[in-house]
Amino acid sequence: MQYRPQTSSADSDPELTEILDTGQITSDQLKDQGFKLYNLALSQDIRRERAAQVLLGNSSYLHHFATSLTKSRDEAEEIVQETFFRMFKNTTPPKKGNYIKYTLSAVYYTFIDSRRKWGRQSVFYDGAPLTNEPREEGQPYQFEIGKVVDPGDSPEDNAALNQKVEAVYDVVGELSPRQRQITMLHYYHFLKIRQIADKLEISVGTVKATLHHARTNLRLSLEERLAS
Questions:
Q1: Angstrom distance (rounded) from CA 77 to CA 121
Q2: Domain with CATH 1.10.10.10 in the chain
């Protein structure tokens, strides 16, 4: 029987072959060729492991994004690893599109899922002090989770969105220490009313009343800021 060397489906695409050979890929190439690599990694192709290595080795933008969300490099690493774990279990991956936007969205949803999971498992706010002291201009509050950026939006749209997000951060920072603490536990750490009451050793009624007053203050302050 005549020997036939093994070939890869990537051999018919010179640009993809070069990416696999060198392991180097530009952001534009990743955006356009990412799904080809992704589908190759999930196939039975002889270069599937190499395709996965290229995707994993060129994921620094995901680590930066996850760090901006979590404010923790260790947690960001876990978020990105979990995202790729889910991606490589996918049996029907997209065939085309913007791979970078797709993976950024995947990281964001993994982050949200992790926060919800923490709430279900009663992982509480760590007790870091939340003060009423004004921040210096340009310095974030302790609870700021990073800028909100949609890769599909224009810089102007993202700037407008972040102006609103910044306004929310500002008015939350102006709440009383107890209102701010309970607001963050409930809306950022996804704790239920009973969990907050148990953690802070106060009644459920006190938590509900504090949240009610905090929401009222936030609504009035936001309406004033966004109208100016």
A1: 21
A2: 155-227
Longest dimension (CA), the chain: 82
The CA distance from 126 to 80, in Å, is 23
51-77 per-residue burial string, b: 16 or more CB within 10 A, e: under 16: bbebbeebbeebeebbbebbeeeeebe
pTM for the model stands at: 0.52
Per-residue pLDDT reduced to its tens digit, 71-80: 788 888 888 9
Closest CA to 110 of 62, 146, 142, 149: 62
Residue type at 5 in one-letter notation: P
pLDDT tens sequence across 124-158: 333 333 333 333 444 333 333 334 444 444 556 55
What is the fold, at CATH topology level, of the domain defined by 155-227? Answer: Arc Repressor Mutant, subunit A (1.10.10)
- Residue with token string 């607001």: 183
Q: How far apart are CA 101 and CA 211, in angstroms?
A: 35
Helix axes 204-227, 193-200, angle to 10 degrees: 110
